[in-house]
Amino acid sequence: MLSLFQFILKVKPKKSRIKTQEAISGMTMIELLVGTVIAFLIITPLMGFVIGLLNDDSRESAKATTEQELQSALDFIAEDLSQAIYIYGNDDPDTVEVEGVEAIKTQLPATGDPILVFWKRQIMRESIPTVSTAKPNACTASTPSTESNCNDSYVLSLVAYYLTDGNGGVCKPPETDPTPDTNCQIVRYQVHDGLKNPYAGNVLYPDADVKDSQKKRAAFNSLFDFSFSTPTVSVTTGAEKFANGDPATPPLPLVNYIDATVASAANELELGANQCRQALGIKDKDKTPAEATLKISTITNSFYACVDSRADKKVVQINLRGNALRRIQEQDTAYQPQRSSYFPTASVTVRGIGGPAPTN
Q: Which residue ranges does UniProt annotate as crossing the membrane (predicted)?
């Protein structure tokens, strides 16, 4: 019996040692290679699918952002134009528009293309003291008192919307200059008169008595005839004073990534004065040469204005075309009809106040 027990003890360790050695041996190189290949075949399509989803999301986000920014820009321009008292006519290929933007271009900033220029009333909130001896710079809503109570007023302003390349130059089409730094944008220039004292014959308040935002701007020309009988004479005091001579009135970038494609019938961007007349609802029987005029950039039709120049109308249609592709790639891309969803468009029609400028 003892001999049998000793035999079992001798045999058992050998079997355990054999199993341990088999367990330590692991996977062979062939098995590992096969597993790697299988994993690669499964993971690669999944990675491609995930990357595709991310790219699609990026493109859709770029399109949505471009559309939102175009609409916001149009809303801003529409609000601006709603206070317009005089809107300059534009370039009409059928006639020479002597009161158009081109006629005053030398008096405007020498940067980019001026597309829309008009005079407006700019509201000055809480600017005129109710007490004649008080000063406008003392007006405040935080400390209501007899001396600080003020009424709203307004000043006359000249507003110009430009299409530029973002560097102070003219937009260059991607067909000829697809450089990474190309970024067509719309900027806004504005110069306005100073705040006038209604208690002293509507003369300007001294600069020391008003806030910086209420001071007369350097480019504003007091010699301009606000009856608009000579609307192209003495419009400003000089183009250089918009920015260089008046640091208080820098250009305001309104929206980026405007399409810079060369306008032509081939890319469905061609427009003319007749299309403008149709867009503004001017019938042929009512048409005169200067009733509806068109202003576009010298390069692109992606920002243009149709202007109804009749004195009793003063209606403007603004049209914009963006370029969402420019957001997701370094170089600019020309408009392509098959990819029109990446070039969203927006338009708005606005009627200004019209009529001669009232006096303060």
A: 32-54
